[in-house]
């Protein structure tokens, strides 16, 4: 079996579901490739060439998104007291997963991963098989009503109590109308005291953002939009922003793991908003 035909090896060396098409690139697998993972096909590596050509430090951008996500989860659980998390577009498991960080700080925390990529679902189900407080569901994040009526989500998440929704590196893969509608629907679902974390590609009026957006849109993936500060702020409209507000991701409550003076600093922004009582 050639490299192009061979399925990535899953958890414990098992092959993933045959429904996965190795001839089509996957956002999750491309992301896995650029951050140094092993779950990707030749087509994903081929598509990534356009991203590296636009911004050679694309791997640092991917890792920036990852460590920002984990830093946010740590804050939500350990400082904001959140014990329910819904992670949208969770992607492939990697070192330091959302549930691992959450359970480290609160062993009773409930985590629901949401994705629609078959390889992501296969890996997550294998990884989470023995976790009572953690699950993964297949859903389209644009169908927010359907998501929050899913019995498996409701088994672990009480939407009447404060919870957190993680929208990290996901809204920038939707077009403008879909992204705004999805963010608005998510804000509507938040109960008082709940949080929405939003982390996205940023167009801070520099050529690299436009070049990288073109590489995403025209290089095979077809998604990956860089938005202005005002456009990103709209995703959190009506919410109280946690300090320091909407900022470059590496400036959001940095810790010892946060890169300083990163060459991709101006290409990614994040914020967490709280729904007031």
UniProtKB/TrEMBL annotation:
Identify the keywords attached in UniProt to this record, alphabetized.
Answer: Methyltransferase, Transferase
Output the superkingdom of the source species: Bacteria
* Gene Ontology MF annotations: methyltransferase activity
GO biological process annotations for this chain's record? methylation
- CDD domains of this UniProt entry? AdoMet_MTases
Q: Give one Pfam family.
A: Methyltransf_19
Which protein is depicted? S-adenosyl methyltransferase
What organism, scientifically named, is this protein from? Pseudonocardia thermophila
Q: Which lineage do the record's taxonomy fields give for this organism?
A: Bacteria, Bacillati, Actinomycetota, Actinomycetes, Pseudonocardiales
């Amino acid at each position: 079996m050639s490299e192009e035909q061979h399925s990535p090896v899953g958890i414990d060396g098992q092959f993933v579901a045959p429904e996965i098409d190795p001839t089509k690139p996957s956002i999750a697998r491309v992301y896995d490739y650029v951050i140094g993972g092993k779950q990707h096909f030749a087509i994903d590596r081929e598509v990534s060439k356009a991203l590296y050509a636009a911004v050679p430090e694309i791997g640092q951008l991917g890792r920036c998104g990852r460590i920002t996500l984990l830093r946010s989860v740590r804050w939500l659980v350990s400082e904001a007291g959140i014990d329910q998390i819904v992670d949208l577009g969770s992607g492939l498991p990697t070192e330091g997963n959302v549930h691992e960080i959450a359970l480290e700080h609160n062993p009773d925390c409930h985590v629901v991963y949401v994705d629609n990529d078959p390889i992501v679902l296969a890996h997550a189900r294998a990884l989470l098989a023995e976790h009572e407080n953690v699950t993964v569901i297949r859903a389209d994040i644009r169908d927010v009503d359907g998501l929050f009526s899913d019995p498996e989500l409701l088994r672990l998440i009480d939407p009447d109590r404060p919870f957190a929704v993680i929208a990290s590196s996901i809204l920038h893969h939707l077009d403008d109308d879909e992204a705004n509608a999805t963010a608005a629907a998510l804000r509507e679902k938040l109960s008082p005291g709940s949080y929405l974390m939003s982390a996205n590609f940023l167009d801070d009026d520099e050529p690299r953002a436009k070049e990288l957006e073109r590489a995403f849109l025209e290089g095979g993936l077809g998604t990956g939009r860089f938005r202005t500060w005002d456009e990103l702020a709209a995703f959190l409209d009506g919410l109280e922003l946690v300090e320091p507000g909407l900022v470059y991701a590496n400036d959001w409550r940095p810790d010892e793991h946060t890169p300083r003076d990163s060459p991709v600093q101006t290409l990614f922004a994040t914020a967490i908003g709280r729904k007031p009582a």
